[in-house]
Specification:
253 residues, alpha+beta, 2 domains
Length: 253
């Protein structure tokens, strides 16, 4: 069955771990990448890097990339960097990559969609893997490389990355908007009652809007605190680590 891009990567990494692979190169099968550039990625990998990305935007190679794709990719790069820790990548969505043994062992994908490339980099940052990029060239003159609209594809990837951000940084994702809405709500209520005492006129619309923002802000802040607490509990739970280890041992037999 077709489990999607992320599902394919899950199978690849699981198989590589089972076979004890030391170096793994993944390349898109649509003909846009040049297999002759594989040695360049492996050379960078053998310099002590754990993950090497073939970047379409190094050394001025990005000129061949359509403008609308550049904008979309930059948005995804920023979102991926925000979700990760200390990521500085020029091409987070490149499907041309090389992985060393350490990366193969620690990367365990959860999603099955096209955002798997970003998820890999986020996990790499979590495990403090050394990530490098090398320039590659990509062909965009090949017909039928994808049946999906690039805009809807990009939006879908972005939504998945946003979901990851909400789970990984709930205090930022929910807390900041929550604080903003709470502040606006309080300001609106103060204005409503001050105007009432000053003019004896009660602004129902302002009052209702302010009260709604206040409730929304408190709800967002509460969700952020709860998710953050759950994330801390899960990160500190030895059960999760043991379960993963047992799963890996079971799959190796």
């Amino acid at each position: 069955t077709n489990r999607g891009y992320g599902g394919a990567l899950q199978t690849i990494f699981a198989t590589a771990r089972r076979l004890g692979v030391e170096e793994l190169v993944i390349i898109d099968a649509d003909g846009q990448h040049n297999p002759a550039e594989i040695p360049g990625l492996l050379a960078a990998l053998r310099e002590g890097n754990d993950v090497v990305i073939g970047s379409r935007f190094l050394d001025g190679n990005g000129k061949a990339v359509p403008a609308y794709r550049k904008v979309g990719m930059k948005v995804l790069d920023v979102a991926t960097a925000f979700a990760g820790k200390g990521l500085s990548i020029t091409d987070s969505q490149s499907g041309f990559r090389a992985y060393g043994r350490r990366a193969i062992d620690v990367i365990h994908l959860n999603g099955s969609g096209m955002s798997a490339g970003s998820e890999i980099l986020i996990q790499a940052s979590d495990h403090r893997l050394k990530v490098a990029e090398v320039p590659i060239r990509v062909r965009y003159d090949i017909e039928g490389t994808s049946s999906e609209n690039p805009v809807s594809h990009g939006v879908g990837v972005l939504m998945n990355i946003v979901r990851l951000i909400s789970l990984r940084r709930p205090l930022v994702f929910f807390g900041i908007p929550g604080a903003l809405f709470t502040g606006l709500g309080i300001a609106a209520e103060i204005y409503t009652f001050s105007e009432y005492y000053r003019t004896a006129q009660f602004h129902y619309i302002v009052f209702t809007g302010g009260f709604s923002m206040l409730i929304l802000g408190l709800l967002l802040a509460t969700v952020g605190i709860i998710l953050y607490s759950l994330a801390q509990l899960m990160q500190g739970s030895p059960v999760a680590g043991k379960g993963t280890e047992k799963g890996e041992q079971g799959s190796s037999h």
